[in-house]
Amino acid sequence: MIINKCLFPAAGYGTRFLPATKAVPKEMLPILTKPLLQYGVEEALSAGISNMAIVTGRGKRSIEDHFDKAFELEYQLIENSKKDYIKKINDITDAATFTYVRQKEMLGLGHAILSGQPLIGNEPFAVNLADDLCINENGENILFEMITIFNKYHCSVIAIEEVPDDQTHKYGIISGKLLNNSDNTFQVDSLIEKPAKNQSPSNLAIIGRYILTPDIFEILKTTKPGKSGEIQITDALIKQAKNGKVLAYKHQSKRFDCGSIEGFVNATNYLALKKGIIK
Ligand code: UTP
To answer: Quick one: pLDDT band at residue 1, thresholds 50, 70, 90?
Structure first.
């Protein structure tokens, strides 16, 4: 089994970024000069995946345009002796294939993943929530590491990180025990979506990277709406976890929650400093 495809759920409303997200998809907001979604696509490419499956929705057409050729723009750049930019706009378009499906109603992340089934088919796949920007500093790549774990254990793998006790209500949280110290894996017994501080089984929070086995689609079809009335991927994973089929990987990347304004600003400052744009 090889991971050939990466699914990008990108249909959410991005309410926290209104009014910016009224006409611009949250996933197209730039950190420096690149949209969030492009960082996700580049991460998948460097993990060895070249087939990008994107779940979009109404008002998200600019995503398709971004990953397509732009002949008029190329012509203008050549005419105006700005050829250097051509590579910047074409590299990503040439390196990957992009397929799209629309989530017709925004019924939650689990529903968005289920909407991607026609693009994925019956094979294990990666999921990347591009608003969780993972900067892989020392040559590591979070998706690549998760694929390596998948190849060893052949079951779903979810990325986790430790969060402060007063932050658990913002995340899906796992309960489980350390499986292998050398590859930072935990055997997941159960999961709970956004628990209150005193009801959280741990402070190990799920972030936006998953490797999922395709049986998740059948489970999602019968998963009832949970917290906030949305179909939660966490609830579907509980069923796999009960059969011992979910591992968690404590990742080593630097992650920014770019779905929040604070995380978005921090990511921008971090990369601007790193690239010497600001001091
Ligand atoms: P979020 O809950 O962070 O995104 O979902 P949101 O709903 O767009 O943001 P707010 O809370 O309104 O500000 C995490 C990811 O899941 C996708 C989002 O696009 C985001 O990438 N998502 C969420 C969907 O594709 N469909 C949904 O129905 C819900």
So the answer is: low
